[in-house]
Structure formats: C-alpha cells, structure tokens
Predict the 3D structure of the following.
Amino acid sequence: MIKRTNAAISKFIIHKVGNKFNDTKNAFSEQEVQFDEASYDLMLPFLLRPFGTVVQSHRFNHHANIKLNEINSYTESIFEDENSFIDVSKNIVKHLYEQSNSAQIKTGDVLVAIFEGIEFNEITTNAIGIFKIESKSNFFQTYLDNNNSYDVAVQQGINTKKVDKGCLILNQTDAEGPIVLTVDNNNYDAQYWINHFLNIKYANDYNSHTQNYLELCKEFSTEILKTSYGNQEQSVFLAKTVDFFKEREFVNVEEFKEEVFEDDKHKTLFEDYKKSFESEQDILILNQFDIAEPVVKKQKQKIKSEIKLDTQIQIKLDIDAPDAASEYLERGFDEEKKMYYYKVYFNTEG
C-alpha cells in the first residue's frame, strides 16, 4: 500500500497505443501535458487511488538477468536522467504495442508519469507510473447553439472512477530489485499486462506465501473436491481454510492438514495436488510461513461459497461458519425421482 498525502506529478505525457494484430498504429506526443488546476486535481487521485489498497508488491522478472527486463531498463534510465522522459515513454509504448498479439488486446491511451512524494513502508520516494486507458464512457455535454438555445450532445471521455491498467515502479529496491505495484481492472487476458508487458512476479515475502497457499487451496477445492466429492465438500473445505487463516499468525502445513481434513485420503490428495501445483506454477510453497492478514481479507472476498443447482436453486453458505455446512446441510439421493437433494436444518427463518 502507498500513501499519497504528499504526492505530486512532476512530469506527465499521453500517447496512443495501437494493436499489432490488427495493424492499428501508435500515436505519440512530443510534449508533456501542462495541467490546469482543475484537471490536475482530478488526475492525481485518479491515478494513485488504486494503489492505496494494493497489499502485495512485485519484482521484475527475466529468464537471464532482470537488467534485461525492458520496463526495468526503461524506468531505470528515467530515474537516472529525467530529461530522457519523453523519448523513453515512447519506447514504453512501443514495448506495450509488441505485446498485442491477439484481436482482444484493446487499443487506448497510455499515460506515463513521474510522481514525487510517494510513501511506501514509511519511506518517501519518487516513482514512475504507467497507465493504460482501454475504455471510455459516454457523457452528455450541453452547449449553446446558433439559435441562442441550449442543446445536448453525447461525448466520450475517461471515467475517473477507476484505472483500467496501471503500475507504479518505485525508485526503491530491496534484495530482489525495484519494487513494483500493479492493478488490472480489465483482466481479459491475464498474461498480457503482468507477464508479457511488465514481466513481473510476486515478491518473495509473507504476502506472496499467503497468496500462493490460498490459491493452492482454491484450485484444489475446485479441481479435486468439487469434481470428485461435490459442492458441499468444497464449501466446507474453503470455510475451514478461511477459519484457519483467520485464527492463526502463521501456517504450518502439517497443522493445516490435521485441522481441515478428517479423512486421511483427502490429506494425500492435497499433498499430491500441492506438488503438481508447485510444478505448474513454478513456485515453492513453504511448509511454514507467517500469515499476511491483509492478503487473507482480500482473498476471502473472492472466495465464492455457493452451491448452484441445475434446478435454478442456489444455496449460499457462510464462509465464516466452517461447521455449518457439515452440521446443517445433508445431501442424499431420491430413488423415486432419481435426483439428488439437499436437506437444510434450521430453527427460524431470517
């Protein structure tokens, strides 16, 4: 998370990025934007607000050497010489253009900015922001026509409520390299922004350990438990997982398995799936690590604990009540109707 109380934009430019797949071209500005007071007061919070809730940071990645990572190289050159800002910002757009290898990659405005006064982990630093605006909103504009009467026209503009895609590269490094924060609200292609354009990975810290483990549990619940044992078993597991992470300060994998699995067969299935998950994702999940509470809160919001039936009925389970599904929900098969059923126990209706 960043604090933007004392943040300011020192340089800002807008370019247009095309789509290589559709042969639409880039268009470049030759001068920086000179803000008036009203547009500046809207632009600064619009760009930085999304990073106030980002709890995980990334680091640049490259198969050989991170100094060969394009965005790492471009932003480093700007930090070293801000006079290169305009030329390097064009190279950033060219690199983004090269990643548009399908028709679904959208064209749009690319905003590149230098920020000062960004606070991160109690350190104040400057940062380079790269933003892509992919969608415009319609709005009404009233105007005075030739008959001295007011009329209305529809125009398109940038919606100031959210950034489509954006990243902040801080002028601050640790043992893994420069610190990168990113957001993607139009994640129609999970590879395009994170892996191809930025080429970044999660930092090797307790945030990423928590994230990876929760992702492992979600995938296991979907691919193994739901497929083989049904929605109820999946929902019970997810509720117990969330409860485990809420009640503890660190994870021990052996303790986790003892807590959430009653059947030894499920423990074995989880161990086997963990190995394949690590191999496919090219990550190592530690057997013990500290829990990042902000990550748990954010991931909990993404966990859907619902049983959707083909009879257009949905049963919503409380993710914070891990024992409710097993105690008050009973699954069976009706021989007469040749259909499965759920029996729900309760005292009063809410």
